[in-house]
Amino acid sequence: MPDDATTGGVTPELPFLRLVPDDASAVRTAIERVLQRGWFVLGPEVEAFEMEFAAAAGTSRSVGVASGTDALALALRGLGVGPGDEVITTPLTASFTALAIVLAGAKPVFTDIDPERLTLSPSAVGEAVNSKTAALVPVHLYGQAADMPALMAVAARHNLAIVEDCCQAHLATCGGQPVGTFGQAAAFSFYPTKNLGALGDGGAVCTNDDRLADRVASLRDGGQSGRDVHTETGINSRLDELQAAILRARLPQLPQRTERRRALAAAYRRGLIDAPVTVPLQVDAGHVYHLFPVRSKRRDALRAHLRSLGIGTLVHYPTPVARQPAFSRFTPAECPVAETACDELLSLPLYPELSDESVDRVCGALERFA
């Protein structure tokens, strides 16, 4: 898996991430229900999950698709964004955010980030808007919301669409309002490492616009407006019944698991006061802590120190997306805040099954780093 919790081929005693489910009974029941029904694509489980997840996300509609990447690309296409358009996004994210913009046929434009939130800087966005700009894709990074009121103001001034990348931010809020309800649409991922994860890939587009939801539902199914009637060239991106059933089994536990993440993050913040690292600010109480990063100018040495003590870590993300070879054909903007962050950020273990004692152990190891 991409988020590999191993280091040097050896699984740490305290891994970065634990994916062995503690809800195996509920998951097996959900799988068995699908097997007994014998309906595996776009059936009653997907329909039920779409309604249940929309309610959890605070939107009227949710459309299940094959991945978070497809959710972003289809939301953009559904809004009419395509060839000739530019879409502004952040360089500090998984490259799949920019990949989705390219898949929609548009050009990604990267602007720098806010030094506190580590999300898209509204002022940098305002400076980058031009006549070709069609949309913004802010990323709610690590579980903390971008500054949506400020970004909404920029979008309103320039008549831009907003598709929120909520792939790391299930149930997060910004000023008390659920992420994914600010723009015209939002994309969620259910990759196994996410706060709400399936046992494979999956994603969803959430929106309050029925016409947009209907178009995305058509685009995900080959552009069909009816059986064997392809009105436009869509793609094959359907959330399958097995994954939908698994997500339905797990969704009711998401609020409780989110609170556990917040409690672990609070314990880290208390325990790291005297450690030689910088802990990024919690700007909004709606942070859901998909990840818990710290910053160090000696990041690689710190990671090796923790590895020597049996503690797994990961780097999210070592290279700004604008510097990735796949996007070299797009002129990279200077994003010094993001580039410095990419050199310094290190993600510590954080998942609901993590014990309080394990947090204490990590904090102690960080304090001993010299």
* CATH top level class name of the largest domain: Alpha Beta
Spatial arrangement of strands, main beta sheet: 1-9-8-5-4-2-3
Number of domains: 2
Uncertain spans, ≥5 residues at pLDDT below 50? 1-8
- CATH fold-level topology of the largest domain: Aspartate Aminotransferase, domain 2
User: Rg to the nearest angstrom?
Assistant: 20 Å
CATH architectural name of the largest domain? 3-Layer(aba) Sandwich
Straight-line distance between termini: 32 Å
**Beta-strand fraction estimate:** 5-15%
The CATH superfamily name of the largest domain is Type I PLP-dependent aspartate aminotransferase-like (Major domain)
What is the β-strand count?
13
Structure description:
By secondary structure, the protein is of the alpha/beta class. It has two domains: 24-252, Aspartate Aminotransferase, domain 2, CATH 3.40.640; 253-367, Alpha-Beta Complex (Aspartate Aminotransferase, domain 1). It is built from twelve helices and 13 strands. It has a seven-stranded mixed sheet with strand order 1-9-8-5-4-2-3, sandwiched between helices. A two-stranded antiparallel ribbon has the order 6-7. α2 (44-57) packs across α8. It is globular. The chain starts with 23 loop residues before the first helix and ends with a helix. Mean pLDDT is 95; it is low at 1-8.
Which helices and strands, and how do they pair?
Elements: H1 24-37, H2 44-57, E1 61-65, H3 68-78, E2 86-89, H4 96-103, E3 107-110, H5 122-128, E4 133-137, H6 148-158, E5 161-165, E6 173-174, E7 177-178, E8 185-189, E9 203-207, H7 210-220, E10 224-226, E11 229-230, H8 241-250, H9 254-271, E12 292-295, H10 299-308, H11 336-344, E13 345-348, H12 356-367
Parallel strand pairs: 2-3, 2-4, 4-5, 5-8
Antiparallel strand pairs: 1-9, 6-7, 8-9, 10-11, 12-13
Helix pairs in contact: 1-8, 2-8, 3-4, 3-7, 9-12
